[in-house]
Design a protein that fits this description.
The chain is mostly helical. The chain is 73% helix and 0% strand. It is built from 9 helices and no strands. The N and C termini lie far apart (41 Å).
Length: 171
Amino acid sequence: MRSPRQEALAGARDIVPLIVGAIPFGLIFGTLAQDSGLSFGAAMGMSAFVFAGSSQFIALGLLATGSTLPLIVLTTVIVNLRHMLYAASLLPHVQPLSQRWQAVIGFFLTDEAFAIAIRRYQQPDPSPHKHWYYLGASVAMYLNWQLCTWLGLTVDQLIPNAAAWGLDFAM
């Protein structure tokens, strides 16, 4: 049986291929954020507190067109309804955990973290520390997203009007 630390490290290791795939999107988000009207701090705050790539890109598009805050919130809620299905799938595995752990797992629920974690939860070993695996994978992805957002914002400041290169096409 693995310790919590071993589980967390295994989760971080196993999500690396998905992190590599997310790098361009984090960079593009950072590059496009300021051109959509967000300040450097607001863009970093969005990545830190929202941490949902598809919602963040949708919000940028809506901000750029002058949409109202209620419309932006409603649209991002609808886009993220799929997380309810993810949460329902995880429920049997996280229900025995404390509310604090459930809140952490809920905050870090992303497509990538779910894909990695559900596979671990469904493995037949009786480890009581599988939630640490989820945490390791999620924190690794979170840190990647923050770093890539920061790098994208920095590139945008160094190369004026980088958004004119058509980076939004990738989305």
